[in-house]
Each structure stands twice: as structure tokens, then as C-alpha cells.
UniProtKB/TrEMBL annotation:
Its main location: membrane. The chain crosses the membrane at residues 12-32, 53-70, 82-101, 113-134. GO terms for cellular component: ciliary transition zone; membrane. Keywords: Membrane, Transmembrane, Transmembrane helix. It comes from the Eukaryota. This is Uncharacterized protein LOC114241542. The lineage of its organism: Eukaryota, Metazoa, Ecdysozoa, Arthropoda, Hexapoda. InterPro entries: Uncharacterised_TM-17. The keyword Nucleotide-binding does not apply. Pfam families: Transmemb_17 (PF09799). The keyword Calcium does not apply. It is found in: Membrane. It is a multi-pass membrane protein. One of its GO terms (biological process) is non-motile cilium assembly.
Length: 143
């Protein structure tokens, strides 16, 4: 039997470091794209596309930070309500990463790798968080 609480906590710990790297690299890449590449793709005439990319990126930063904070708090205190909110925040976080993966103005190959790794971590966290919630909602066993 897998200890879902331990696996979930390990995944949250790994993702807290990877999220910092991911956020820094994505922000740097988006700034680089807005300065160098965007003129090549004729986006300068429609700045809303670039603004939408920045908005999704900063929204993803806020949602993912809140999700990780609630997940760590709920996992360490073994309470299911913060973990449940963390699981619910996984859905907009996954949608934000999918936007960065497929619908940006310009998507680089390195961003595909970063976003795929982020999606893998989020899906694994979703699975283990769901298992953690199920084990917390069960009654105690006196075997």
C-alpha cells in the first residue's frame, strides 16, 4: 500500500522548487520573446495577444503559489479541506500551463519541455492528493 500523504508531500516539495525555476524561465522567455521575436511574427500591431500571455503567466503564478501553499499546509497538518482546495486549484493551474504549452503567440521547444514537466508534476500531485483526501475521509480502522 502506498502512503499517499508521504508521496503527495514529496511531490509538493519537488514542485515548490521546480515552480520557482519554471516561473523564472517562463518570465524570462516571455520578456525575450516580447523584445526580439514578436516583431518577426507581426504581433506589434495587436498588443492584446502579448498582454494576454503576460496575464495568463501572472495568473498562473498566483494560482500555483496558492495551490502549493494550501497543499503543503493541508498535508503537514493532515487536514483534508486545504488539500481539497489545492486539488480544485489544480484545474486552473493545468489550464494555464496548457495555454503556455499550446496557445501562446510563439511557443519555443524549451517551453514545451518545461510545460510538459510541469503538467506531469501537477497530474501526479492531483492523483496523490485525491488518494490523500480519500484516506482522510475514511473512518479510523481498529484492526
Amino acid at each position: 500500500m502506498v502512503n499517499s500523504s508521504l508521496a503527495y508531500e514529496i511531490l509538493l516539495y519537488i514542485n515548490s522548487f521546480y515552480f520557482g525555476l519554471f516561473a523564472t524561465c517562463e518570465l524570462g522567455t516571455l520578456i525575450l520573446k516580447s523584445v526580439l521575436i514578436i516583431e518577426k511574427y507581426n504581433v506589434g500591431q495587436d498588443p492584446t495577444k502579448l498582454g494576454r500571455d503576460y496575464g495568463v503567466l501572472f495568473g498562473l503564478f498566483v494560482v500555483e503559489a496558492l495551490r502549493l501553499l494550501l497543499g503543503r499546509k493541508g498535508s503537514l497538518s493532515e487536514k483534508d479541506i486545504p488539500v481539497l482546495f489545492s486539488v480544485l486549484l489544480t484545474i486552473p493551474s493545468i489550464m494555464g500551463v496548457l495555454y503556455l504549452l499550446a496557445f501562446q503567440v510563439v511557443v519555443l521547444r524549451i517551453e514545451c519541455i518545461w510545460c510538459t514537466l510541469m503538467l506531469c508534476l501537477q497530474v501526479l500531485e492531483f492523483i496523490f492528493a485525491s488518494m490523500f483526501i480519500v484516506t482522510m475521509c475514511r473512518g479510523p480502522s481498529y484492526d
